[in-house]
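User: Hi! I'm working on a homework problem where we have to compare a predicted structure to a textbook description. Could you give me the structure for the chain below?
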Amino acid sequence: MTNHLKNNIYHIYDTSNTAFGVDPLSHFAMGDALIRLVGNAEAPAALHFWPMEKLVILGMMDTRLPHLEDGLRYLRNVPTDIVVRNAGGLAVVADEGILNFSLVLPETEKAKLTIHDGYVLMKELVEQTFSDSEQVIEAFEISDSYCPGDFDLSINGKKFAGIAQRRFKNGVAIMIYMSVTGNQQQRGEMIRRFYEESLQGEETRWHFPAVDPASMANLAELLDKPLTVADVKERILSVFTRNGNTLLPGEYNERLMAEYETAYAKMKKRNEQVNQEQYPEAD
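Assistant: Happy to help. Predicted structure tokens:
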């Protein structure tokens, strides 16, 4: 299997530093555009950083909640922006203390990356990012966290990160959110209340987590060291540099922007349901 952490060329995209940063939909559209270009061999592999300020990201399954409008009303009153993402999973929080990062890789017939391989690769990257710590990072489902999954990353049983993947032909993005700083208890309570309002005790054919805010914690707390999102971003970049990779600024060229516009239109359509009240049409 190709070693994606060593001796490769990566283009860096940080959409918090651009005009895209003001529109939550734009980060997801840019992510899809990067997968398309990398998958078509029109661009090298990419590192995509996209910090947010105040956002709840819903999964497609969340749109099936029986009292979704009540849950959305609660979130709007928090207040927080809301987006339905285009990759799997359930509701997560993105704010200034959370690092959202995607590793966008090409696939070929000779170098296929299975879903399991993708998760293992991201775990290995996180382990190298915090190799100066003696804490052991484990990967297993924390069932009472928000957006639980088989590869939840945790320290001492407390989840600090979740991983998702999105795949198109010949391209894959492995995405992670890491709780670095901030009030993780409050984040967990917000998602717990969202499901409480959206379910109202009803049984559904889909499983939604009974969120216990105490099941998750921040990296700064778990590693017992002062950390910021910027620190963790620099640590990630240092891993790639140490491993002999060439890091270059990403180019927002015509091809990328064409794919972005197409992906953005799809994201806008996907979000019509949750954004009706957030951005009401003029009479």
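For your comparison, note the following. The longest strand covers residues 158-168. The helical segments are 24-39, 68-77, 115-129, 184-199, 219-222, 229-242, 254-270, 272-275. Good luck with the assignment!
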